[in-house]
Design brief:
Layout (H helix, E strand, L loop, with lengths): L13 E6 L17 E3 L3 E3 L7 H16 L10 E6 L5 H8 L2 H15 L6 E9 L2 H14 L1 H6 L2 E3 L3 E8 L2 E10 L2 H22 L4 E8 L5
Parallel strand pairs: 3-9
Antiparallel strand pairs: 1-4, 2-3, 5-8, 5-9, 6-8, 7-8
Helix pairs in contact: 2-3, 4-6
């Protein structure tokens, strides 16, 4: 059991007992990371979008509970204990009942309120450069060149920002989120934008742009 320490003034965390996992008809997105395929310019297309912390926690704990229930002879007596400050959280209540349908319904309501997929459709224009200025410079130019076209079809282009992990192997990374309420306008916009972005990429290589990618239904934002 994982122990969590806290200031003495706080009450002790509560241990939640979860029976060993039984067979459930879970969608692949809750158990196996979706695979991606690549094509020039390093474009990745997936069938799933980023999962919330609650969704990742649910999948992780459900998988861990499954380890305790693999042996059929002892599965009925097996338990997994989780120590938490929030034992009444809907996530733990759903886990105790193995109620994936209820948990999924709650997550869908939260996604609808936040305007996240499947109630919105996202793509990420990513860039890597020798400097952060080079990466963001390309993204800003890519957005500015097609801002009018995006607005005409109801597509929103957000400002370029550094990625959560900004620097890897001496390469700076940045991203620009593209959002649409409908998938078809988003796909048409991305298709029409390719030629312009290819041209801009060639121009910005002189200023330090290394590579760029279009990530549709991004797994991370």
């Amino acid at each position: 059991m994982e122990r969590t320490t806290a200031p003495a003034s706080n009450p002790a965390p509560t241990a939640v007992s979860l029976p060993a996992a039984k067979k459930m008809g879970l969608p692949d997105s809750m158990s196996t990371p979706p695979k991606t395929t690549a094509s020039a310019p390093r474009a990745r297309r997936t069938s799933h979008t980023s999962r919330s912390p609650a969704e990742r926690q649910f999948a992780l704990l459900l998988q861990a509970a499954g380890r305790a229930g693999r042996d059929a002879e002892v599965a009925g007596r097996s338990e997994m204990w989780v120590q938490t400050w929030h034992p009444t959280h809907p996530l733990y209540q759903a886990l105790r009942k193995y109620d994936f349908a209820d948990f999924a319904a709650q997550q869908l309501k939260e996604r609808e309120m936040a305007g996240l997929p499947p109630y919105a459709h996202l793509a990420m224009l990513r860039a890597e450069g020798k400097t952060q200025e080079a990466a963001q410079g390309f993204l800003e130019a890519a957005a500015q060149a097609l801002m009018a076209e995006a607005q005409a079809v109801g597509v929103t282009l957000y400002p370029a920002v550094p990625t959560p992990v900004q620097r890897v192997a001496n390469v700076e990374r940045a991203q620009l989120m593209i959002e649409s309420a409908q998938r078809v306008p988003l796909q048409r916009f991305l298709s029409a934008a390719q030629a312009t972005w290819f041209m801009l990429a060639q121009q910005h290589r002189r200023s330090g742009l290394i590579r760029w990618a279009v990530d549709v239904d991004p797994l991370s934002i």
